[in-house]
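Weekly sync, protein design subgroup
Attendees: M.S., D.O., the rotation student, P.L. (late)

Item 1: inverse folding check
M.S. brought a backbone from last month's batch and wanted to see whether the design step gives back something sensible before we order anything. D.O. pointed out we never logged the input encoding, so this time it goes straight into the notes. C-alpha cells as presented (821 positions):
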C-alpha cells in the first residue's frame, strides 16, 4: 500500500554499484537449506526477485569496495588532535557497548507516511500511512522475538482504512544490534566501509570519505540521572555523495557514546544514473547484457520522468541512558523526498523505543525458552532464506526468484489458514541484520488495529505521538547544514533533457503554437548547481532562454535566473501544463493570457513545499501577439480568443505566497489556504493581495461538502497583466476565462461530493465577480456557473462538465489536476 515509501526504502537499501572497481566473486554452490537435521519442502513457482531475503551471506556474494586510506587522508581528516582523539574514543565506545550489552526487552513503535503533490506549489496530500507496535526481546547468542501488538494502515486518497493484513514484519526494526550503530534508521548503516552502502562516519577507514571537527558543547539533565556534558562532532563529506552524510553527532564527554544525531545525506540518489551504472557493472562483470529497469521505459517517455531521484533530507536521533552505562536509541526520525518528473512524494519514517529491561547478561529463562521453541518449529526457514543468495548465483536469477516465491507461497497459505482456523497467531522466520528473528503476528488483525500500544488516531500529529522534544531543532539543523566537499568527485556529467511532457518543455498555446524546449542541469560544489533552458515556438519563432545558478540544501532552494520567456497573467490555472496544451490543440480553447518578460529573478522555494515561497524580480514586460489559430477541432477557423494586449514597462518588486493546510483525517474538518502578496514599482506602481480558503467536512448519507471563498484586491496602478481574471475551471466554471477582469475580485464555490474519495461524483455551483475595487460591495449580477464532475484520489485529478448560467453559455468540459476538492 505504501508504494512511494517502499520505493524509497528498497532503492536506498539496495547497494548501488559504482562504475569502477566492480568486484563480484565466483558463484557459490547452493546450500542444502537444512538446519539441525530439519528440512522443509516448498513448491516452486514463478515470482519476483527479492533481495530482502538475502542475509549476511550477501557479504560473501559482494566484496566490499572502498577508497584506500592514505597518509594524506589521515593528515587532512581532523581539524586538530582533540578531534582525532574524540573520533577514536567514539569508535572504542561502540565496541565497548557491543561487547557488554547481552539482552534487552521493550516496546517499539514506528510510523511510515507518504504524501503526494503534482507540482512544487501544490498542497501535499497524505497518500498513505502505516503504523505498528511490537514487544521486542533480543539476546546476543540466541536471536530475537518481535511480537506484533498493534498494526493499522490508511490510504486517505484511495479510501483504504486498513490492509487485509496490516502487519509488515519486514519493516520493523530492532532498536539495537551489535556492529550496526543505527544512525540510519531505515537501512543498514554499517561500520564496515563499503562504497555501495551508507558510509558510517565512525567506521574504520571513514577518513577517506569525511573530515571532522569539534563544534559546540551542551549540558543535558536526566530526571533522577544527573547532568551529562555533550560534545558536538561535526562531520563533512570530502565530496557530495548519495551515501555520505553531513551533520553532527553529539557525544557523551565521559563515555564518547552517541547521545544525539542530526544529519542528512549530502546528495540525492539519481535513480536513472544508478540504473545505468548497475547495468554497466553487470555487463562488465558477467560479459553479457542484463536487462535493467531502465529498459522497461520507452525512450520517448523518459524525459517526462526527469528528474527521478531520492533525497534523504533530515535524520534525527535521540538516545536514552539505560543501566547507567548504555546509551540506546529512544526516538529517531527520517524525512525523504521522492521526485519523478513533476510529482513530489515526501516521505517520513518515525520510530520510538522504550525499554523494560537492559542487561549485561542473557534473557531470563522464559524468554530463552520461547526462542528455543520458535527455533525448533521455524528455524529451517532461516536456512532456506540463507540459501537464496547462493542459489541465485549458482544457477540462475529465475531459480532464485522461484525459491523465494515458493517460501512466500508457504507463508501466505499459513496466513490464510490463520484467518480461517481458530489459531491465535502465526510466525514469520527471517534473518534481520544477521540475527535470527521470529515475528509473531496475531491472527486477530481487528484487535491489532485498536491496540492500546498505538496512538488514539492514526492521524494524530507527530508532536502528539512523540511528545515535545528537541527534534524540531535537530531537524532544522540537519536540513540546513551544507556539505563543504566537491560534487561527487566530479564524476557527474551534465544532465540534458531534450523535451519533457510532464515538465512543461513540450507545450502548445495560441502564441507559440507547438513549442519545444531543451534543458541542461549541472551540479557543482557546495550545494550549487547551474541550469540552462532554450525554447522555440514554431508559430512565433521568438526564442526563449533561461540561465540560472541555484544553491540548495535539504530545506530550501535559492535560485537566481536571467530569462527571456513567455509568461502567463492571472493567479489561477497554468496554461503551460500538458492538460492545458491538449485543450488548446484538440478543442481550440486556450484559457491563458500571455505576455513577454525579460529580466532577472531571485527565488526561494522550500524543498518540502511547506513554508513561504518568495521571488525578487526586475524585468521588462511587453506584449505577446497571438500567432496561431490551428487546433484539431477548428483547423484554421480562427476559434482561439484574442490574447490580451499587455502594457509595456520596466518594473522591480517582490512576490510571496504561502500554501498551508490543516487536518489530515478525511472524517473531520479540513482547511486549505493560500495567501499571496506582490508589490512592485517602476513604470507601474502597484501592490496586490489574494486570500483563498477551502473548508470541507463529511455530511450525512456518505456525502462530503466543501465551501471555497476567494478574494483579492490591488492598489496603485497595476498593468493589465497584473489584474485579476475571473472565469474558467479554477474560478467560475462554465464561463470563458477572463470574462470579468479588474483590480478587485471575489469568488464563492460550493461542492457536494457523493461517495468515496478514490472516485467521487461531485455537484457544484460557482459565483464570481471582478471589476473596480470601489464597486466590490455592489457587484451587480455576478458570473455564475454550475455542473457535475468527478474527483479522483481526493482531487488529485479532476474532470468537470459545466454550463454557464450568467451569462448563459454552452457546455464546457474541463480536465485538470490538483483540485481543492
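Designed sequence read out in the meeting:
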Amino acid at each position: 500500500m505504501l508504494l512511494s515509501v517502499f520505493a524509497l526504502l528498497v532503492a536506498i537499501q539496495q547497494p548501488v554499484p559504482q562504475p569502477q572497481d566492480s568486484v563480484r566473486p565466483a558463484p557459490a554452490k547452493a546450500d542444502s537449506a537444512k538446519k539441525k537435521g530439519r528440512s522443509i519442502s516448498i513448491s516452486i513457482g514463478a515470482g519476483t526477485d527479492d533481495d530482502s531475503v538475502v542475509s549476511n551471506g550477501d557479504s560473501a556474494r559482494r566484496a566490499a569496495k572502498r577508497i584506500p586510506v592514505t597518509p594524506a587522508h589521515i593528515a587532512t581528516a581532523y581539524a586538530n588532535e582533540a578531534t582525532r582523539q574524540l573520533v577514536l574514543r567514539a569508535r572504542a565506545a561502540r565496541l565497548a557497548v557491543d561487547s557488554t550489552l547481552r539482552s534487552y526487552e521493550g516496546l517499539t513503535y514506528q510510523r511510515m507516511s507518504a504524501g503526494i503533490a503534482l507540482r512544487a506549489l501544490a498542497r501535499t496530500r497524505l497518500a498513505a500511512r502505516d503504523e505498528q507496535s511490537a514487544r521486542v526481546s533480543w539476546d546476543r547468542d540466541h536471536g530475537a522475538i518481535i511480537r506484533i501488538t498493534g498494526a493499522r494502515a490508511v490510504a486517505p486518497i484511495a479510501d483504504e482504512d486498513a490492509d487485509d493484513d496490516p502487519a509488515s514484519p519486514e519493516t520493523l526494526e530492532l532498536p539495537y544490534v551489535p556492529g550496526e550503530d543505527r544512525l540510519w534508521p531505515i537501512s543498514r548503516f554499517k561500520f564496515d566501509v563499503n562504497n555501495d552502502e551508507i558510509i558510517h562516519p565512525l567506521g574504520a577507514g571513514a577518513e577517506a570519505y569525511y573530515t571532522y571537527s569539534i563544534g559546540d558543547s551542551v549540558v543535558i539533565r536526566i530526571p533522577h540521572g544527573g547532568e551529562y556534558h555533550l560534545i558536538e562532532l561535526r562531520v563533512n563529506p570530502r565530496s557530495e555523495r548519495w551515501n555520505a552524510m553531513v551533520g553532527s553527532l553529539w557525544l557523551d564527554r565521559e563515555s564518547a557514546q552517541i547521545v544525539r544525531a542530526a544529519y542528512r545525506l549530502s546528495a540525492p540518489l539519481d535513480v536513472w544514473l544508478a540504473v545505468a551504472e548497475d547495468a554497466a557493472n553487470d555487463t562488465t562483470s558477467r560479459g553479457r547484457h542484463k536487462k535493467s529497469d531502465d529498459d522497461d521505459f520507452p525512450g520517448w517517455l523518459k524525459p517526462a520522468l526527469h528528474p527521478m531521484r531520492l533525497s534523504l533530507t533530515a535524520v534525527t536521533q535521540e538516545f536514552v541512558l539505560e543501566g547507567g552505562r548504555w546509551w540506546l536509541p529512544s526516538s529517531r526520525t527520517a524525512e525523504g523526498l521522492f521526485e519523478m518528473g513533476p510529482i513530489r512524494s515526501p516521505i517520513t519514517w518515525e520510530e520510538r523505543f522504550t525499554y523494560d529491561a537492559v542487561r549485561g547478561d542473557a534473557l531470563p529463562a522464559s524468554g530463552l525458552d520461547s526462542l528455543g521453541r520458535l527455533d525448533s518449529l521455524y528455524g529451517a526457514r532461516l536456512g532456506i532464506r540463507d540459501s537464496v543468495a547462493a542459489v541465485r548465483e549458482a544457477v540462475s536469477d529465475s531459480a532464485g526468484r522461484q525459491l523465494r516465491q515458493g517460501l512466500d507461497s508457504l507463508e501466505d497459505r499459513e496466513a490464510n489458514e490463520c484467518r480461517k482456523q481458530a489459531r491465535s497467531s502465526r510466525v514469520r522466520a527471517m534473518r534481520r541484520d544477521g540475527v535470527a528473528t521470529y515475528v509473531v503476528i496475531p491472527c486477530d488483525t481487528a484487535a491489532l488495529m485498536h491496540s492500546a500500544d498505538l496512538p488514539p488516531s492514526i492521524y494524530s500529529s507527530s508532536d502528539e505521538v512523540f511528545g515535545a522534544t528537541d527534534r524540531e531543532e535537530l531537524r532544522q539543523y540537519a536540513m540546513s547544514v551544507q556539505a563543504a566537499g566537491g560534487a561527487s568527485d566530479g564524476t557527474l556529467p551534465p544532465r540534458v533533457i531534450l523535451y519533457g511532457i510532464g515538465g512543461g518543455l513540450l507545450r502548445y498555446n495560441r502564441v507559440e503554437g507547438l513549442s519545444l524546449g531543451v534543458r541542461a542541469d549541472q551540479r557543482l560544489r557546495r550545494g550549487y548547481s547551474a541550469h540552462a533552458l532554450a525554447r522555440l515556438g514554431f508559430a512565433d519563432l521568438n526564442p526563449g532562454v533561461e540561465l540560472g545558478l541555484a544553491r540548495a540544501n535539504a530545506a530550501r532552494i535559492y535560485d537566481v535566473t536571467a530569462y527571456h520567456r513567455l509568461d502567463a497573467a492571472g493567479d489561477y490555472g497554468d496554461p503551460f501544463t500538458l492538460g492545458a496544451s491538449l485543450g488548446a490543440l484538440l478543442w481550440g480553447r486556450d484559457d491563458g493570457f500571455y505576455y513577454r518578460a525579460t529580466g532577472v529573478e531571485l527565488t526561494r522555494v522550500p524543498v518540502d513545499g511547506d513554508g513561504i515561497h518568495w521571488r525578487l524580480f526586475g524585468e521588462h514586460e511587453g506584449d505577446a501577439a497571438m500567432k496561431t489559430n490551428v487546433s484539431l477541432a477548428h483547423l484554421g477557423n480562427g476559434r482561439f480568443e484574442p490574447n490580451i494586449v499587455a502594457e509595456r514597462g520596466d518594473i522591480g518588486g517582490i512576490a510571496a505566497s504561502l500554501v498551508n493546510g490543516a487536518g489530515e483525517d478525511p472524517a473531520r474538518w479540513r482547511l486549505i489556504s493560500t495567501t499571496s502578496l506582490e508589490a512592485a514599482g517602476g513604470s507601474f506602481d502597484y501592490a496586490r493581495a489574494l486570500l483563498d480558503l477551502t473548508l470541507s467536512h463529511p455530511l450525512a448519507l456518505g456525502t462530503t461538502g466543501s465551501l471555497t471563498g476567494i478574494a483579492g484586491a490591488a492598489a496603485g496602478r497595476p498593468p493589465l497583466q497584473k489584474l485579476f481574471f475571473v472565469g474558467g475551471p479554477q474560478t467560475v466554471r462554465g464561463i470563458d476565462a477572463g470574462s470579468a477582469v479588474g483590480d478587485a475580485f471575489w469568488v464563492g464555490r460550493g461542492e457536494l461530493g457523493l461517495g468515496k474519495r478514490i472516485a467521487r461524483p461531485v455537484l457544484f455551483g460557482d459565483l464570481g465577480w471582478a471589476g473596480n475595487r470601489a464597486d466590490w460591495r455592489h457587484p451587480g449580477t455576478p458570473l455564475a456557473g454550475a455542473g457535475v464532475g468527478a474527483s479522483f484520489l481526493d482531487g488529485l485529478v479532476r474532470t468537470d462538465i459545466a454550463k454557464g448560467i450568467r451569462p448563459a453559455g454552452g457546455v464546457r468540459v474541463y480536465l485538470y489536476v490538483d483540485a481543492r476538492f
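Discussion: The radius of gyration is 29 Å. The CA atoms of residues 498 and 518 lie 5 Å apart.
Action: P.L. to compare against the previous round before Friday.
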